[in-house]
Amino acid sequence: xxxxxxxxxxxxxxxxxxxxxxxxxxxxxxxxxxxxxxxxxxxxxxxxxxxxxxxxxxxxxxxxxxxxxxxxxxxxxxxxxxxxxxxxxxxxxxxxxxxxxxxxxxxxxxxxxxxxxxxxxxxxxxxxxxxxxxxxxxxxxxxxxxxxxxxxxxxxxxxxxxx
Length: 163
What we know:
CATH class: Alpha Beta
Distance between the termini: 33 Å
Number of domains: 1
Shape: globular
Strand order of the largest sheet: 1-2-3-4-5-7-6
Strand content: 25-35%
CATH superfamily: Gcn5-related N-acetyltransferase (GNAT)
Keywords: Acyltransferase, Transferase
Number of helices: 4
Helix content: 25-40%
GO molecular function, one term: acyltransferase activity, transferring groups other than amino-acyl groups
Mean pLDDT: 95
Low-confidence stretches: none
Order of helices and strands: EHHEEEHEHEE
Radius of gyration: 15 Å
Protein name: GNAT family N-acetyltransferase
Largest sheet: 7 strands, mixed
CATH topology: Aminopeptidase
């Protein structure tokens, strides 16, 4: 089986399905950890709809989809925060395909897009409980850094030089 990575419109049906899978997993993990229940269906729908991903559209953003054996398996996006800094967004790989090499391909595509947009540095935020993500970022050369935002659920911040 082979991996392929390609740009995808942020509002395509494939992107929407992967956004739903991503958000459902991270939201349910947070609620199960902190409140011992999954995300309420109405909250899930409201939050998925609220983040349209417009910031991942050209000319200052990009979204990538990785496919495994031709099937959509995950996403990674990038957007410019300022002329020299990009932000890595929506890094997600379906649970059953993790550990097979797809996530590094996605992150690499996003980093290349950030460089093409002129970024010299890429940043991201994540949570304590997303240990798989934190491990991935460390393996790919990201280092923990000071907070660059005040997102409610952000607990860890990473950065990497691109040049």
